[in-house]
Amino acid sequence: MPSAVSRFAKIAAIAALTSATVFASLDDAEARRAGSGGFGSRGTRTFQAPPVTNTAPGTTAPIERSMTPRPQTTAPATAQQPLGAQRPGFFGGFGRSMIGGLIAGGLLGMLLGHGFGGGFGLLGMLLQIALIGGAVMLAMRYFANRRQPSYGVGGQSRSYNMSATNNSSFQIPTIGSGGGFGGQSRGNRPSDEIGLAQADLDQFEELLTQVQTAYGAEDYGTLRRLTTPEAMSYLAEELGENATNGVRNSVSDVKLLQGDIAEAWREDGQEYATLAMRYSSIDAMVERDSGRVVSGDDRRPSESTEVWTFVRKSGADWKLAAIQGAEQRAA
């Protein structure tokens, strides 16, 4: 009888574990826009965290799936003195050794002068004079170094004057009617090296709606036109996993609520723009055959915050290059 109970307990445990695995896979499929990791490429900044913005003031998920090679990190050859570290005093290090040498020289002079005759006494006196002269030179060098400014890593002074940039009157334009760029403080402005225009911001908002809608409709052709080949490969992989699990991610009524430019830059003949966007959408995971809602809500909209990176070549349209999840703004 105990063996039968034991077998029943094992079967129940296996069934519970299987059920948890199935529900976990469905949750992962739904969590594409709020997942813990991102995908795609941001050029040489792929594995760097984008600047925080008003829309995404918290942590941005790192890019975990990318064809961009990860940079190799090497340990520094020599340890550098930390900023603000105190210099050794004159009575520390070599200075302390010199004082000891003077004492030893005096004792040696006394010993030689009194123990072996006048000739050796003169030699001891000359040795003491040499040691005293070296001590004086060391002291002069020490006090001269104390008057020099302190430098940090790389030889750069720790004194900065940022008044020239803080007085800039540059204003960030808004995305759409619900944009929120204008409320940023001067100390937290995005870095825009290419000068994005209102037409660019309008295109980013349009791409947000088009990509999400095409993803929900499993429109591979539209996704291929709006994204880079790398981003498309990851989106197609997710759609294929949904099909394998017998579900479909239904997305509709996408509306941008707030957006911020995190950074925009040029590299290798291309232009990149990373933006934080908070938007609402009706998002639900449904069974492919019956249409039954597995997770999410197919009637009421929910909000998501993500960081999207777009890329274009000169004269071409913007395309989606990467998506990263971001922490929601606190209510």
CATH class of the largest domain: Alpha Beta
Radius of gyration using CA atoms only: 34 Å
* Low-pLDDT residue intervals, each spanning 5 or more residues: 11-36, 81-94, 114-119, 147-174, 176-188
Task: Kindly state the percentage of residues in helix.
Answer: 25-40%
What is the tally of beta strands? 8
Largest sheet: 8 strands, mixed
Total number of helical segments?
Answer: 7
- What's the end-to-end separation, in Å? 57 Å
Shape: elongated
Named CATH architecture of the largest domain: Roll
How does this model look, in words?
- With 331 residues, the protein is of the alpha+beta class.
- It folds into two domains: 21-65 and 172-325, Nuclear Transport Factor 2, Chain: A, CATH 3.10.450.240; 94-144.
- It has seven helices and eight strands, in the order H-E-E-H-H-H-E-H-H-H-E-E-E-E-E.
- The chain has helices spanning 2-30, 94-115, 118-146, 163-166, 198-217, 220-226, 229-244, and strands spanning 38-40, 63-65, 191-192, 247-267, 270-287, 293-296, 302-313, 319-325.
- Strands 1, 2, 3, 4, 5, 6, 7 and 8 form an eight-stranded mixed beta sheet that branches.
- Strand 7 (302-313) and strand 8 (319-325) form a beta hairpin.
- Helix 2 runs antiparallel to helix 3 (118-146) and helix 5 packs antiparallel against helix 6.
- The protein is elongated and about 105 Å long.
- The two termini are 57 Å apart.
- Residues 11-36, 81-94, 114-119, 147-174 and 176-188 have low confidence and may be disordered.
